[in-house]
Amino acid sequence: MSSATPATPAQPQAQAQAQAQIGVTGLGVMGRNLARNFARHGFATALHNRTTSRTDDVMQHFGHEGTFVPSRSAEEFVRSLERPRRIVIMVNAGPATDAVIDEFAPLLEPGDMLIDGGNAHFKDTRRREAKLKDSKLHFVGMGVSGGEEGALNGPSIMPGGSEQAYQDLGPMLETIAAQVDGTPCCTHVGPDGAGHFVKMVHNGIEYADMQLIAEAYDLLRNAAGYQPQQIAEIFRTWNEGRLDSYLIQITAEVLAHTDAETGKPFVDIVLDQAEQKGTGRWTVQDALDLGVPVNGIAEAVFARSLSGHADLRGAARQLAGPTPGTQVSDQFPDLVEQALYASKLVSYAQGWNMIAAGSAEYNWGIDLAAMATIWRGGCIIRAKFLDRIRTAYETSPTLTTLLADPDFAKEIGDAQDAWREVVATAVRIGVPVPGFSAALAYYDALRARRLPAALIQGLRDYFGAHTYHRTDREGAFHTLWAEDRSEVSR
Description:
The chain is α/β, with parallel strands linked by helices. It has 20 helices and twelve strands. Strand 4 (86-89), helix 4 (95-104) and strand 5 (113-116) form a beta-alpha-beta unit. Helices cover 52% and strands 9% of the residues. The protein has helices at 29-40, 52-62, 74-79, 95-104, 122-133, 147-153, 163-176, 194-222, 228-238, 246-256, 266-269, 279-290, 295-307, 310-315, 332-362, 368-374, 386-395, 406-429, 434-447, 453-464, and strands spanning 22-25, 45-48, 68-70, 86-89, 113-116, 138-145, 156-159, 179-180, 183-184, 468-469, 476-479, 487-489. Helix 1 packs parallel to helix 6 (147-153), helix 8 packs across helix 12 and helix 15 (332-362) crosses helix 19. The strands form three sheets. It has a seven-stranded mixed sheet with strand order 3-2-1-4-5-6-7, sandwiched between helices. A three-stranded antiparallel sheet has the order 10-11-12.
């Protein structure tokens, strides 16, 4: 049966002898929903889980949705799959993924593929891909975004791996992915770890996006005095304009929600300590390795970290704050909207710069416009302006930064006065806005004719003889600071 040809969906139940077109091992929420998505689209789907009760649960509750092929062992699971075998691994990243690979690889034959749909670090994916290549097995690191709802109804899918693997697997993934204007939110990102790298950066942008939204809420509440229900309406209004996005939409939903037990706004009964699973931290760590400035994303990661340090916050709670008295105008929500939009543009620009740097470092050949295309639907950061990001990179594939695109440059320039006013107001009132501030500092650093890094180089040369470059001639130089302060070439 062809990989791109769905099975006849009339079969409602699993049959032990059926030949499945794809298999999913690891039937937690994401794995179960992804398996259901394949089956709903007519693909016979094999099921496997270390604990067979989960397999039974899928069959009991969702067996009517399509053709499922349950199995009790790894061997039975592999036998139920047509060649080339396609096994999607949906378990925790790290040792659990390696354990599943070690279990299944000996049961497979050349040309078969293992597809890791978890949030693996891309360097682990590169290692696994190289190891399995020796056995002539394909390994696909596949980023999946959209949460449990996306996995079931259409996620954004970012597969890496070989071209041959995508030829066999891609038509199926494109079928189950989210669709926007008839285009699937799925594309072959590039070789080995490219898919997981791009998913990692996606999550880094997501961290920044949520931090900026949270800061906008904090300003509207603690600077302008609006209540959560009122702020929800402001966000709903914003979602009808250029900020139209999934995260803005659900922010309004969360802010409008009332806790049934206390009658208080839901946001007021949630502990203000944000958790994280690590992909944002990876983004910052790998950006440092690549030498790419992503300070907006970094500040979002650090803000989550700070929120969780209850001991530090408790010890510093008595620190003095600013003198009360700053007033904001009725136009303040509009100023915040402009600051939020400008800061979001900076975060997305930093993300795209990192993708470009990673692509160059690892020779992946990632299509930057295509990344905007596949993030228009299904994923957490889906937003209206991704269409414009796609156009910007289609028009100028070598665009150095998204902020240099003429349309975006004009918008961020038009927003800068409001942006500065919002940051200044936050400073005067004492509302922390690390995301807004970092984005504005990045913007100002990019447009500066000269940066104080010249002084830093002088200091480094003074205490460590690290040398410096001059503006008026080529070469590296060192000043003999402890002697006669003459200059020598190095």
